[in-house]
Write a structure and sequence with these properties.
Layout (H helix, E strand, L loop, with lengths): L13 E5 L11 H22 L4 H28 L3 E5 L2 E6 L5 E6 L7 E4 L4 E5 L7 E5 L1 H19 L6
Antiparallel strand pairs: 1-2, 2-3, 3-4, 5-6, 6-7
Helix pairs in contact: 1-2
């Protein structure tokens, strides 16, 4: 993501821009959702082949098959492809993520007031930087320690700018 792709406030400057260099195919939630999807798809497929339903029952079984396949495989594929179109930026006042498979959506979190970033190391010198629920998370980035340090400094500076000067 470059400064030309995002709308900057007057005086705002980009400190870092990047994209995921490691795209996760599976995440922790998939440990439950994928097996459940396989079970649902298998049950729906068995029902369709063994019982040969008709009408509304067949429609429900087909919907269950599609939902099961999406849970088992589809979510991971969609996530993987969406991360291929994800970009991140850190400005002196915000952290921004733009992502989406078909339609790009931009999420931003103001740096002032964010907790210290936590770094979860990933494979091949990549990592994920998170701040907490409801905030932007930078997933699979390269040089994560450098970016975390840059974010820590930017958060401290943004927070200091928010503090009113002492009364004289």
């Amino acid at each position: 993501m470059s400064a030309g792709e995002i709308e900057l406030s007057p005086g705002e400057r980009v400190l870092w821009a990047g994209e995921p260099v490691q795209r996760p195919l599976y995440v922790a939630a998939d440990g439950v959702i994928a097996p459940a999807g396989f079970v649902l798809a298998a049950a729906a497929l068995w029902f369709l082949l063994a019982k040969q339903p008709s009408g509304a029952t067949m429609a429900v079984a087909v919907v269950a098959l599609v939902l099961g396949l999406y849970g088992a495989i589809g979510r991971s594929v969609v996530r993987y492809l969406a991360f291929g179109r994800t970009t991140y930026a850190v400005t002196d006042s915000r952290v921004i993520a733009r992502s989406g498979l078909f339609r790009q959506k931009e999420r931003a979190s103001e740096l002032a007031g964010l907790p210290s970033p936590s770094l979860k190391p990933g494979p091949s010198r990549t990592g994920t930087i998170a701040f907490g629920p409801g905030t932007v998370t930078l997933v699979g980035i390269g040089e994560p320690k450098r970016v975390r340090d840059l974010l820590t400094k930017a958060i401290d500076e943004a927070t200091a700018r928010q503090v009113p000067p002492p009364a004289a």
